[in-house]
Amino acid sequence: MYKAPKKIYLILNIIIAVVFSSLVYSDAEAVISEEQIKLDVQNELVFDYVRNFKYILTYKIKHIGEYSYQDYYYDTPDLAIFNLGYLYRFRVRDKGSGSLEYGLQFKKEYDVNNKQDFQRTEIDDVIPEEMALKILSGNWSEAFSSNYDLRTIKEFRKFLEENKIDTKSLSPLIYGQQKRSRFSLKEDGKLYFEISLDKCSFNLINDARKKEINFLQLEFENKFKGDRSAMDQREERIQDLIMFFTQNFPTKVERDSKYRTVVRELIKK
Question: pTM for the full model?
Answer without folding.
Answer: 0.80
